[in-house]
């Protein structure tokens, strides 16, 4: 919960940057034959396409890291149960492991952007669909 608002702002900024750079690239590609300075237009298009790749990869990296952490957190209960089955475990360590396994099984680790969206792999396709939808709206508007 502590990082909910900043994570929401970061993902929203990446989303807005993806939409605007994709729009600029599509506009420059559709109007490149009209402008007399073709080399400048190609440079503009390539630079914005590279920025689009950077923004997209940063958003994917954040979502992938959150998803990987969730996946590893789900494995912890089985690891604890395997430790509890080990022979020669003293009583204090066994009690602490049981207490921790109860906490780990009750608390589901989940990253969310301030309650707005769960940062997991299903977020990526929905972001892609939203970027395409907004891009189509912007292209029809021009």
From TrEMBL:
<keyword id="KW-0472">Membrane</keyword>
<keyword id="KW-1003">Cell membrane</keyword>
<feature type="transmembrane region" description="Helical">
    <location>
        <begin position="116"/>
        <end position="139"/>
    </location>
</feature>
<feature type="transmembrane region" description="Helical">
    <location>
        <begin position="7"/>
        <end position="29"/>
    </location>
</feature>
<keyword id="KW-0812">Transmembrane</keyword>
<feature type="transmembrane region" description="Helical">
    <location>
        <begin position="49"/>
        <end position="66"/>
    </location>
</feature>
<keyword id="KW-0807">Transducer</keyword>
<protein>
    <recommendedName>
        <fullName>Gustatory receptor</fullName>
    </recommendedName>
</protein>
<dbReference type="InterPro" id="IPR013604">
    <property type="entry name" value="7TM_chemorcpt"/>
</dbReference>
<dbReference type="Pfam" id="PF08395">
    <property type="entry name" value="7tm_7"/>
</dbReference>
<keyword id="KW-1133">Transmembrane helix</keyword>
<keyword id="KW-0675">Receptor</keyword>
């Amino acid at each position: 919960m502590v990082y909910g608002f900043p994570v929401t702002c970061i993902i929203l900024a990446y989303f807005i940057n993806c939409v605007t750079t994709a729009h600029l690239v599509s506009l420059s590609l559709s109007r490149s034959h009209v402008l007399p300075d073709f080399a400048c237009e190609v440079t503009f298009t390539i630079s914005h396409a590279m920025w689009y790749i950077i923004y997209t990869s940063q958003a994917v990296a954040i979502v992938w890291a959150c998803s990987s952490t969730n996946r590893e957190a789900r494995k912890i209960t089985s690891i604890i149960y395997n430790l509890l089955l080990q022979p020669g475990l003293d009583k204090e360590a066994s009690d602490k492991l049981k207490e921790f396994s109860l906490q780990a099984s009750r608390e589901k680790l989940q990253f969310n952007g301030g309650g707005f969206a769960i940062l997991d792999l299903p977020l990526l396709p929905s972001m892609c669909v939203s970027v395409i939808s907004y891009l189509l709206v912007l292209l029809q508007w021009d």
